Amino acid sequence: MEDPIETRNSNLSTSMRSYENLPNHQLDDEVVIVMVPFLAQGHLNQLLQLSCLISSSYDLPVYYVGSATHNRQALLRANALNPLDIAKIHFHDIPLPEFDSPPPDFNALNKFPLHHQPLWDASLHLREPIATFLRDISSKSRRVIVVHDSLMSYIVQDVSSLPNAESYIFNCISVITLYCSLCLFSGKSIQLGEELLKKLPPLEGALPDEVKNFMDFQSPYMDIKSGDIHNTSKVIEGEFLDLLAQVESKQQWAIGPILPTKLNNISNRNNICLEWLNKQPPRSVLYISFGTSTTFSDREVMELAMGLKQSKQKFIWVLREADRGDASTGEARRFELPERFEERVKEVGLVVREWAPQPEILAHSSTGGFMSHCGWNSCIESITMGVPIAAWPMHSDQPRNGFLVTEILKIGLTVREWEKREELVNASTIEKVVRKLMASEEGDAIRKRSEELGEAVRHSTEKGGSSQIELDSFIAHITR
Ligand SMILES: *[C@@H]1O[C@H](CO)[C@@H](O)[C@H](O)[C@H]1NC(C)=O
Ligand SMILES: *[C@@H]1O[C@H](CO)[C@@H](O)[C@H](O)[C@H]1NC(C)=O
Ligand SMILES: *[C@@H]1O[C@H](CO)[C@@H](O)[C@H](O)[C@H]1NC(C)=O
């Protein structure tokens, strides 16, 4: 039987990244890589993927260092990774002081997950144990390479005191966001062209002061890095990578998408979403998920439910609240849906309240659209799988990611303008945008562009493709 996931990804599955492009003498077991992720799902996940990629394709030892709680969470939620690859990673658990893990405030107008603040504060205590770990490992290796989140810059600062260690920031946001922020901080003008500049969403309202303070606190240590790695591809953000190079002096590598290249070997084939998708026509299903950091109010959930129903389009809706600081604590909120909603939409839609295998859903040939908060992970996954996006950004870099998707790449539609972020998005707005994306000529044209871009992005991770070349070049650099 033809496998819908494999079919969509035949390119990917044949393109297992390997080190055959690298001269052998550059592979050196004495180079050790230490990954230090920021303690939130969207960040844990990316460095775990990078760990698997580097360890399996280049045969280098990789340590994944974090709190026991979050290391466990990363493992539990490892979508689409090969268990054999995960088994090669050395997980190093560090105890974290106890921290409060309150539920998200689902009525807050600002969607930023501020309830994680106690966790961020606790995470600062990782500095000492990580320094001890790095000292120990540096005494036993020729070189230690620390790859960390920019929000962990304070914690890994002791790299600078070790003669044989160097660090690289793995950027978890789009390069367009990074570039715009750097311009703002350094007082340079953003080179975007007048028309686009007018449409660029303002930074205003994207980050609460608490977060800005946390970032300011980290920023003195960010310059310790020897370079940056970006989870993007020249095919997606070539223009912005070039612009970034004008304002950033350290070396840059665009190695994304860091996709598990072997979706044909997934462990969750029997997942209810994938089984349901197997029964739907090609490109007919809208996938809806707002990530792990957004919680909707009851009113917003009601409007979305009504809008979906009125659109008469097929859908899979992942209905979850934002993670707590420790995602394993507390009871999940039971969202109210219109009466007998799930039963009434049974033929057209599926509501899922558990962790969903997002990359596999997006890779499935029945999926034809993604309503998304435009977190960078979700954008990259959707772009790579050739799925157009109904953009509904919530906070942080998401408004700019949405702008990239709709205005620059033109592979999506806007659900709600950033300026109207404090207004309720009503059912009729949702119905309209869903119909336009899933059942209109304009939607088909957008879908076609998405598929073409996805194809090009997947090619960039194959032998000779730009992302593969950049990754090889990064590995050659650190193993020099
Ligand atoms: C990097 O890209 C992949 C898609 O290839 C995605 O699955 C992963 O979560 C991304 N990480 C980040 C933060 O960009
Ligand atoms: C898939 O995984 C199994 C073990 O989990 C392994 O034996 C097999 O070789 C893998 N296949 C591919 C194509 O990687
Ligand atoms: C829904 O919202 C849109 C945009 O804000 C508005 O134009 C429209 O009148 C609203 N419709 C209803 C039925 O409230």
Automatic annotation (TrEMBL):
Keywords recorded for this protein, A-Z: Glycosyltransferase, Transferase
UniProt domain Glycosyltransferase N-terminal: residue ranges: 29-260
GO annotation, biological process: cytokinin metabolic process; glycoside biosynthetic process
InterPro entries: Glyco_transf_N (IPR058980), UDP_glucos_trans (IPR002213), UDP_glycos_trans_CS (IPR035595)
Record GO terms (molecular function): zeatin O-beta-D-xylosyltransferase activity
Cited Gene3D superfamilies: Glycogen Phosphorylase B
Enzyme class: transferase
Keyword Repressor: no
EC number(s) per entry: 2.4.1.-
Alphabetical list of Pfam families matching this protein: Glyco_transf_N, UDPGT
Xref: SUPFAM superfamilies: UDP-Glycosyltransferase/glycogen phosphorylase
PANTHER family named in the record: GLYCOSYLTRANSFERASE, ZEATIN O-XYLOSYLTRANSFERASE-LIKE
Family of this protein: Belongs to the UDP-glycosyltransferase family.
The protein, known as: Glycosyltransferase
Natural source organism: Solanum bulbocastanum (Wild potato)
The organism's taxonomic lineage, starting at the top: Eukaryota, Viridiplantae, Streptophyta, Embryophyta, Tracheophyta
